[in-house]
Design a protein that fits this description.
12% of the residues lie in helices and 38% in strands. A hairpin with a 2-residue loop joins strand 4 and strand 5.
């Protein structure tokens, strides 16, 4: 069953409100620095920058939003009010 997760980003960033990932293709989500975290998928790394030193909080929120059932679902990550993704992620 395909499941998705949407990571919200600041609306003023090129009119994009979030980046949606197929959960099955996320291998891990890790803190890179105090203000950056990365979503890893096969052959790609999406590096997000928060507007402050909130990468750890962002990773915790993403982990909590990951679906844990076999039903089709799209989950939107709900960040604490102090966590804002500042830019569209860089992809490597």
């Amino acid at each position: 069953m395909v499941q998705y997760i949407t990571i919200p980003i600041r609306k003023s960033t090129s009119g994009v409100n979030g980046i949606t990932f197929n959960v099955d293709l996320i291998s891990t989500v890790l803190v890179v620095s105090t203000s950056t975290f990365a979503v890893y998928s096969p052959g790609r790394t999406f590096t997000f920058t928060t507007s402050g030193s909130f990468a750890k909080e962002a990773v915790i929120a993403i982990t909590r939003a990951l679906p844990n059932s076999d039903k089709p679902v799209v989950s939107t990550v709900v960040f604490p009010s102090n966590v804002v993704i500042a830019l569209i992620p860089t992809v490597a």
